Automatic annotation (TrEMBL):
Homodimer. GO terms for molecular function: metal ion binding; methylaspartate ammonia-lyase activity. The active site is at K331. It comes from the Archaea. It is an enzyme of class 4 (lyase). GO terms for biological process: L-glutamate catabolic process via L-citramalate. Residues 1-158 form the Methylaspartate ammonia-lyase N-terminal domain. NCBIfam families: B_methylAsp_ase. Its EC number is 4.3.1.2. This is methylaspartate ammonia-lyase. The lineage of its organism: Archaea, Methanobacteriati, Methanobacteriota, Stenosarchaea group, Halobacteria. Mg(2+) binds at D236, E273, D307.
Length: 425
């Protein structure tokens, strides 16, 4: 079925763009916003409204499918593409992108997505957010044209066997790390709570505040969780362990702190995302390898998650090849085309590194649902609940999309089995 039209409508995403550098340099909260001047190019304020471009693809039979362009909350930081501004980029989608894709066969998802991935305009590749959103619409178009699920289209493109159970969902609490986490316990969320530990105040000058929080996680999970509940704790510290301890990361003081985290989390596993941020990919990999070797030598079972400087497909490869992390976050908007996220998850197969299909609170319900299909197609280790920082909505969107898709695939397989039996008779 032919692609007959592509339209771009600026809109809002599920959270905000934040100037991470300004925040790390000490910008103080002013209610929901921040005081001070932005320092990252493109920002007018330290916190400003998140934006999206709603991408509609029309097919020859009149069907319209959708994808949403999105960029991460901390745009322009850590080697990412610049701040994504919808009014600037919408004409690119309705112009050069539409010119390339209109008239193409919608069932050729991988070819179409790769064409988009390699496309340049005035010598520059398309912004990652454009590639991300348009490729979601291409995935939906292929599923519609083939009367199948987006999971099956993605699995066919990647050569995988889809998961038959929902991938464990990782809930993120935002700054409301107590109330939102209690909601997660009540719902039995398998991986939690993120906790947004992005300042010395939140971790403690010697890490003591985070240890107290982990103690609380264990206590409340046992009080509120369903019978048999065994959560995995995942906490993003935004490099703050590096801020309070510093290198080298295999020394006794640092390793002992991770041992304290392991003890506080017992009997549940714990993983720490972004333990340090040293300013570039090569040094970040070296620092994380140093930390992992120190933990392994001491027998400390805390998993380390790559985040900072692990943005592109090539970044994921570098972290996995160096064995710099127990998990790598595949930050879906940063990889561009959504198939690239699937390929990044697959790159972890057969290695000691697990794939966390992540992204950002600053996405939309459309991009979150699309990522649920990538998670199922690749059977990722975990998938982020998104968008937003309220938890409930993002969890509902991602979990229900996986459950609905699995149920549909089971019904369709049952029908195939029934038809085969009838034919044999």
């Amino acid at each position: 079925m032919e692609i007959t039209g592509i339209h771009a409508t600026p809109g809002y995403s599920g959270f905000f763009f934040d100037d991470q550098r300004a925040i790390k340099q000490g910008a103080e909260h002013d209610g929901f916003t921040y005081e001070g001047e932005p320092v990252t190019d493109g920002f007018d304020e330290i916190r400003q409204a998140g934006e999206t471009i709603i991408v509609d693809i029309e097919l020859a039979d009149g069907t319209v499918v959708r994808g949403d362009c999105a960029a991460v909350q901390y745009s322009g930081a850590g080697g990412r593409d610049p701040l994504f501004q919808a009014e600037e980029y919408a004409p690119v989608i309705e112009g050069p992108v539409a010119d390339e894709l209109e008239g193409r066969d919608a069932t050729e998802f991988l070819d179409n997505a790769e064409l988009l991935e390699e496309m340049t305009v005035e010598g520059d590749r398309l912004h990652t957010a454009i590639r991300y959103g348009v490729s979601q619409a291409l995935l939906a178009a292929a599923a519609e044209a083939e009367n199948t699920t987006r999971t099956d289209v993605m699995a066919d493109a990647l050569g995988t066997e889809p998961a038959t159970e929902p991938v464990p969902v990782f809930g993120q609490s935002g700054d409301d790390r107590y109330n939102n986490t209690e909601k997660m316990f009540v719902k039995g969320v398998p991986v939690l709570p993120h906790a947004l530990i992005n300042s010395v105040e939140k971790i403690g000058e010697n890490g003591e505040v985070l240890l107290e929080y982990v103690d609380w996680l264990v206590e409340r999970s046992q009080e509120l969780g369903p019978e048999g509940y065994e959560p995995r704790f995942h906490i993003d510290v935004y490099g703050m362990i590096g801020e309070i301890f510093g290198a080298p990361y295999d020394r006794e003081e640092v390793v002992d702190y991770f041992a304290d985290l392991e003890e506080a989390a017992a009997p549940y596993p714990i993983q720490i995302e972004g333990p340090m941020d040293v300013g570039n990919r090569a040094d970040q990999i070296d620092a994380m390898v140093e930390l992992r070797e120190g933990l392994a030598e001491a027998g400390v079972a805390v998993d380390i998650v790559a985040d900072e400087w692990c943005n592109t497909f090539e970044d994921v490869q570098a972290f996995v090849d160096a064995e710099a992390a127990d998990l790598v976050q595949v930050k879906t908007p940063d990889l561009g085309g959504i198939h690239r996220s699937g390929q990044a998850v697959r790159y972890c197969e057969g290695t000691e590194t697990r794939a966390y299909l992540g992204g950002t609170c600053n996405e939309t319900e459309t991009s979150a649902r699309a990522c649920a299909h990538v998670a199922l197609a690749t059977d990722a280790a975990q998938v982020l609940a998104k968008p937003g920082m309220g938890f409930d909505e993002g969890y509902m969107i991602v979990e229900n999309e996986m459950r609905r898709t699995i149920a549909r695939r089971e019904r369709e397989q049952q029908q195939v089995d029934t038809d085969e039996v009838t034919a044999d008779d």
